[in-house]
Amino acid sequence: MKLFQQLLVAPAALGLMAPMASNAADLAIKGVSDYSASSEQVTSISQFQDVYPTDWAYQALSNLIERYGCVAGYPSGSYLGNRAMTRFEAAALLNACLDRITEVTDELRRLLNEFEQELAILKGRVDGLEARVGELEATQFSTTTKLKGKSIFVLGAVNAGGDESLSDPYNEEVGAFTFTYDLRLGLNTSFTGKDLLYTRLRSGNMGSTAWEGEGLKGSLTALDTASATGDIVTIDRLYYRFPVGDEFTFIAGPLARNTEMLGIKPTAYGKSKVLDYFGGTMGTPGVYNKETGGAFAAIWKQKTSKGDPAFSASVSYVSDAGEANDGNPSTGGFMTDNAEGNITGQLAYSSKRWGVALGYRYGQCGVKFRRGTDLVADNKWHQNCQQVVGFDSDGDEVFDQRSGAYSNNFAVNAYWQPEDSGWIPSVSAGWGLSSLSGDFYDLADNDLEDDLEDQVPDQFQSWMVGLQWSDVFMEGNYLGLAGGQPQFVTSLTGDETTYDGNYAFELWYKFQVTDNISITPAVFYLSRPMGQDTGDQYDNKFNIFGGVVQTTFKF
User: Fold this and answer.
1) pTM of the model
2) Which candidate, 504, 513, 555, places its Cα nearest to that of 276?
3) Dihedral of CA 59/65/67/70: which sign?
4) Of 52, 145, 357, 553, which residue is least crowded by CB atoms under 10 Å?
5) Tens of pLDDT along 379-433?
6) In this predicted structure, what is the pLDDT of residue 403?
7) Angle at Cα 356 formed by Cα 304 and Cα 246, nearest 5°?
8) Which residues of 343-368 are buried (b: 16+ CB within 10 A; e: fewer)?
9) 77: part of which helix (H) or strand (E)?
């Protein structure tokens, strides 16, 4: 007998085996006959005149009537729920329920026969799935690790125009049409389901191309996807991320990036990233300079109802990868004076559709400013942590004089995107300001050089605006347009006038071929990437036009 039949029959069977509730004199055979031979079966509990919703067994009785239809009453329309049950009455109730169970069983048997073929097919499929799952479990890479990959093929070229004395050498160095690649393999490992040990392997061959920024000190032609490992597979990320409570997350590792340890990414631009200035640094490379190395970070995100805006805050420290693993305290170390350290903080208020973030980065001497004009890049010399101050008896250089240089960098970024795709694009904007401080030493004679001091930049600025349309022409395709001014010097330490202004633009369209393959043709233009190093602001001209086709494979 099936389990649900046993559960149904058990109470009645117990009633049959129990001693009589009253003596034989109390039996009323006529009443039992009336109960078992009621003129019609009860189909609703409302048919009983003496059963009320306040009765303690009201719901149980209702279920027996409506689900199983095996409860009868007396011809008078009464149930007599408070009356003791005789063994004859229990037998009548049990008989009615068994009849009903037999009906249900016959119906199920008919259905099983009717759908026998379909059930056999389903059973075969389940058996096949079980076999495949068993095979996957036996041959799986890891029970804790998942592999995600991205491979990008890049076809394209750049061409410089303007003064031939500037453009010809540039075109000769990096002006050829090239076919390159970038490969990223990410290993996501979790031990608790909430933590993440992230390891990324990377390889590429863009080292001698414009896509890595060759030919310009400020590297403004560098793509966000650029990789220059010389076809050698390297590890470029290795860190551990874990939550503490509901609102805090901590990150630590020997290879982590400051732009990946933020409360929010303050932009809606970059479904397909082209120039690193627009997509990678969000137009504010002074703060979001993508410094990678030994790092730790703390992130706080306010817990709110889903969809409601929330505050977030983050702070991180990153020592450059070349210094964090350097055991010589005069040239490197982790959290030392020569670590080329970055302290990056962010305070943000955002929702799914919009957000605003204030960013700050303190940069030790030697820290790079990522993307800017050649004059910005030239300024790196005074940011060196150590200067040559003399020679020892063996003629070796002595590095014991710090330059004292450091930078304070600020950024404001905001974004907004429409609720539904259409003609209205998402809008992302950013503005950055960098201020340099410290003593500026001439490497030639190791003294403070008054002649150079007036020509040393002490302030940079940058800004960008990016527009992005979704579902353009076809669902899943995107169109992007961005413009702005990469980092340019706005003031010098002396009274010298600077003419470092420049502009950058990009236009791209991402065509989603399949869920895992996309093609993105793009063009970009740099009006004056060398900035003031171009020469006279009126006579000397130098600009760059570029085009690429990026094919992305995700797996």
Assistant:
1) 0.73
2) 504
3) positive
4) 52
5) 654 555 655 555 656 666 555 555 667 889 999 999 999 988 788 999 999 999 9
6) 64
7) 25
8) ebbbbbbbeeeebbbbbbbebbbbbb
9) none
Phi, psi (5° rounding) for residue 34? -60, -40
CA 146/CA 91 separation, integer angstroms: 63
Residue partners of 139: CB distance under 8 A and separation at least 6: none
**CA distances in angstroms from 481 to 210, 280, 468, 506, 511, listed in the order given:** 21, 15, 6, 6, 15
Residue 414 has which token pair?
Answer: 């905001």
User: Residues 505, 483: contact at Cβ < 8 Å?
Assistant: yes
The yes or no reply on domain 141-554 and CATH 2.60.40.10 is no
Instruction: Name the β-bridge partners of 297.
Output: 251, 316
Residue 87: C-alpha distances to residues 15, 21, 28, 41, 400 (Å): 7, 9, 11, 21, 106
Q: Are the C-beta atoms of residues 402 and 385 closer than 8 Å to each other?
A: yes
> In this predicted structure, what is the pLDDT of residue 464?
98
Residue 48 confidence (pLDDT): 79
In terms of Cα–Cα distance, which of 105, 257, 209, 255 is closest to 546? 209
Of 419, 427, 414, 429, residue with least CA distance to 348: 414
Cα separation of 530 and 215, whole Å? 10
Write down the domain spans for the chain: 3-116, 141-554
Helices in 175-261 by DSSP H: which ranges?
none
Please give the structure tokens belonging to residue 95: 């008989």
Q: CA angle 178-179-183, nearest 5°?
A: 135
Q: Kindly report the CA angle at 179 between 176 and 182, in degrees rounded to 5?
A: 125
Kindly report the CA angle at 383 between 381 and 387, in degrees rounded to 5? 75
| Ranges of the chain with pLDDT below 70 | 1-41, 68, 72-76, 99-100, 102-104, 139-141, 379-404, 439-456, 493-495, 537-538
pLDDT in tens, 289-298: 999 999 999 9
Backbone angles phi, psi at 98, to 5 degrees: -65, -40
- What is d(CA 476, CA 23) in angstroms, rounded to the nearest whole number? 82
